[in-house]
Recover the amino acids of this structure.
């Protein structure tokens, strides 16, 4: 599953875009340096019933923003992403031509 597909699946499950979840994490004080991943994972499990893999995708976004490593961009396989820039504003608003 690509990184973007993880974020899309989170939106389907929670009804919230990754950006909305990022805003909620910020409001809860979970986007500050030094926040442990386990704190964020526990919050996402408790409030949204997200599993560890999906929660860790959001941990990355909370800590690093919408940019991912070029490692899987253009690569073959299940973890291939189209871009190093993740779309955080929801599947319905993704620009035309980008994979859903």
């Amino acid at each position: 599953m690509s990184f973007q597909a993880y974020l899309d699946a989170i939106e389907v499950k929670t009804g919230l875009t990754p950006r909305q979840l990022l805003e909620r994490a910020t409001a809860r004080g979970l986007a500050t340096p030094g926040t442990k991943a386990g704190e964020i994972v526990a919050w996402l499990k408790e409030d949204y019933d997200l599993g560890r893999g999906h929660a860790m995708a959001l941990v990355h976004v909370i800590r690093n923003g919408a940019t991912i490593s070029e490692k899987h961009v253009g690569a073959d396989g299940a973890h291939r992403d189209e871009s190093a820039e993740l779309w955080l504003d929801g599947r319905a608003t993704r620009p035309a031509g980008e994979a859903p």
Q: What stands out?
A: Residues 3-90 form one domain. The chain has four helices and no strands. The chain has one domain: 3-90.
